[in-house]
Amino acid sequence: MEKQKYQMDLSFLENYDNSTRHYQPFDLLATPGCIPLMVMCSKKPEPAAWSIIGTMYSVHFLHYRDMEDYIIRRSLTRWTEEHDHKAGLCLSGISNRCRIF
């Protein structure tokens, strides 16, 4: 198959590893619609110190403060038993490790 003429070169992404194997679970957040989001902390400070993993996306932050701003701007809250009841899930035990804010 012939390479498309206007195909974007994404080779620069090879230098940035945002896979979850370099992160460890830190806490669990909830969107206003009770969708769970996992907060991850990198095992090493490179490439990014923090990550929020959603259903179909992940967001990476170099600084804790940037992640905190993201959480506040999107009205994310810590996952609680109330979210378990609303969403029909049982995830509140995961969220009891650390407090983010």
Task: Give an account of the 3D structure.
By secondary structure, the chain is an alpha+beta fold. The protein contains 2 helices and 5 strands. The protein has helices at residues 64-73, 81-87; strands at residues 23-30, 36-42, 50-53, 58-61, 77-78. The protein has a 5-stranded antiparallel sheet, covered by helices on one side. β2 (36-42) and β3 form a beta hairpin.
Radius of gyration of CA atoms, rounded to a whole number? 16 Å
What is the oligomer described by this structure?
single chain
- Helix amount: 10-25%
- The tally of beta strands, per DSSP, is 5
Q: Structural class from helices and strands? A: alpha+beta
Strand content: 15-25%
Report the order of strands and helices: EEEEHEH
Overall 3D shape: globular
Give the neighbour order of strands across the main sheet: 4-3-2-1-5
Number of helices: 2
Distance between the termini: 51 Å
Low-confidence stretches: none
User: Roughly what is the average pLDDT, rounded to an integer?
Assistant: 80
Largest sheet entry: 5 strands, antiparallel
Overall tally of structural domains: 1
